[in-house]
């Protein structure tokens, strides 16, 4: 275990801010437990709960943090005597305490926690351990639970300097991965080979993927998780791949590039339109701006372009208001990013939506993951796209909203475009925004030059 993942002063300051928000409410934050892949001793690599990482900075399996007033204590499982044989020397309680900046005690000394609030662990084993410690189920949140959850949301929405440094580290590795993927691309190989070139850049930095990579010639499948297709001339390769830094911070970038190194005329037309939509959305990012309006800026740009191409007919604003554009851009323009690639989505819309705001029921807009006013220090992704999804375009119920506004003959001209998405990680600053992943090529000419 590395004892320097998160700066000690940073996690101490976060715990102090949490305690101040809780005003005496005691909080229990659990790291979670390793999950077996098939038999108990063969586990997946352990990744601690993001809430625990945020406040402690180290992935200590089965550990629990208790915050009460100005005091914090981390309770850890006693070392098994066999650990030294199989895993080498493990840090002592004193060494752990120095690293996390608070007392560290054996888990056997965990006090009674009646009345404490908790952020539920995502993994079932970790949640079960929390419930045993609390003596109650977490399925129905108590007032104390809600207080702890809301305090954690408020803290994690706005990144401190140490968090931003972690995001920059992830962005740099993500840049290297995308450059490697572009360079490795050529007709005749499988998607798996490009994926391997990309994740190699993480492994050589002792990092891992922040999520399951998407590397596919079927860009119309939004979360494609297979890599067996062969790349051919004329294909577009969509790669949605991001690093997880050594401290757990996520990168999340999508680029789409031509397998042959040259976009066709129709591919370039759609590519440039998606890029224009992304640039319009990024230009909108600034403190005080509602993220829903950032999404709509991308939608309007896309709708205007599709009208100009003859694919859609009518007034672009009406097209967006009615959700016709969502036939080609069915998801939200992005999400929060931090220790989770979709930051705090384990807490649902309580984290992503400001109090009093609710998800739309309109197709497309209903998938918007974030509807808050942006603040300095927030980090978000901006990722518009254009997709020809058969399950949408062949569904009479979904396409009915278009009426005679969809020209399928005009759309047929773009048959060689299955899917295009362009995504960057964007930090909200006092003067607007900073694109953390700006160094990854995305102008058509630059992407073409980087391939092969």
Q: Indicate how many domains the architecture comprises.
A: 2
Q: What's the shape?
A: globular
Report mean pLDDT, rounded to a whole number: 96
Name of the level-1 CATH class of the largest domain: Alpha Beta
Major sheet size, sense and barrel closure = 5 strands, mixed
Q: Write out the strand line-up for the largest beta sheet, numbering strands in chain order.
A: 4-3-2-1-5
Radius of gyration: 24 Å
* The CATH superfamily title of the largest domain: Creatinase/methionine aminopeptidase superfamily
Class by SSE composition: alpha+beta
CATH topology of the largest domain: Creatine Amidinohydrolase
Please count the helical segments. 16
Q: Please tell me the CATH architecture of the largest domain by its name.
A: Alpha-Beta Complex
Tell me the span between the first and last alpha carbons.
38 Å
Q: How many beta-strand runs?
A: 15
Assembly classification: single chain
Helix content: 25-40%
β-strand amount? 5-15%
Stretches with pLDDT under 50, minimum 5 residues: none
């Amino acid at each position: 275990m590395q004892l320097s993942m998160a700066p000690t002063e940073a996690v101490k300051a976060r715990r102090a801010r949490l305690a101040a928000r809780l005003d005496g409410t005691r909080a229990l934050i659990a790291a979670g437990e390793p999950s077996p892949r098939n038999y108990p001793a063969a586990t997946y690599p352990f990744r601690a709960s993001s809430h625990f990482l945020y406040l402690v900075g180290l992935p200590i399996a089965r550990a629990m943090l208790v915050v009460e007033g100005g005091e914090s204590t981390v309770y850890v499982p006693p070392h098994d005597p066999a650990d030294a044989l199989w895993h080498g020397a493990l840090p002592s309680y004193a060494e752990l305490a120095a690293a996390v900046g608070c007392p560290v005690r054996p888990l056997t000394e965990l006090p009674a926690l009646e009345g404490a609030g908790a952020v539920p662990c995502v993994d079932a084993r970790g949640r079960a351990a929390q419930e045993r410690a609390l003596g109650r189920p977490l399925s129905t949140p108590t007032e104390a639970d809600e207080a702890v959850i809301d305090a954690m949301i408020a803290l994690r929405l706005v990144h401190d300097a140490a968090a931003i440094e972690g995001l920059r580290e992830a962005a740099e590795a993500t840049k290297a991965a995308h450059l490697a993927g572009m360079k490795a691309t050529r007709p005749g190989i499988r998607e798996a080979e490009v994926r391997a070139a990309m994740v190699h850049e993480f492994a050589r930095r002792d990092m891992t993927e922040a999520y399951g990579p998407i590397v596919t010639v079927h860009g119309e499948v939004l979360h494609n998780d297979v890599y067996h297709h062969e790349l051919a001339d004329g294909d577009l390769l969509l790669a949605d791949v991001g690093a997880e830094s050594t401290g757990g911070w996520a990168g999340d970038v999508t680029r789409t590039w031509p397998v042959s190194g040259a976009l066709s005329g129709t591919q370039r037309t759609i590519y440039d339109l998606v890029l224009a939509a992304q640039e319009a959305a990024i230009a909108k990012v600034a403190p005080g701006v509602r993220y829903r309006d950032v999404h709509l800026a991308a939608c309007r740009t896309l709708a205007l372009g599709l009208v100009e191409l003859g694919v859609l007919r009518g007034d672009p604003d009406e097209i967006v208001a009615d959700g016709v554009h969502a036939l080609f851009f069915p998801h939200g323009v992005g999400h929060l990013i931090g220790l989770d690639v979709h930051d705090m989505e384990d807490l649902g819309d309580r984290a992503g939506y400001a109090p009093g705001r609710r998800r739309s029921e309109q197709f497309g807009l209903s998938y918007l993951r974030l509807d808050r006013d942006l603040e300095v220090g927030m980090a978000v992704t901006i990722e518009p796209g254009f997709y020809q999804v058969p399950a949408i375009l062949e569904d009479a119920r979904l396409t009915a909203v278009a009426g005679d506004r969809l020209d399928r003959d005009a759309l047929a001209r773009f048959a060689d475009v299955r899917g295009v998405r362009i995504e960057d990680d964007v930090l909200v600053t006092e003067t607007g925004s900073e694109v953390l992943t700006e160094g990854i090529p995305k102008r058509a000419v630059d992407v073409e030059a980087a391939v092969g």
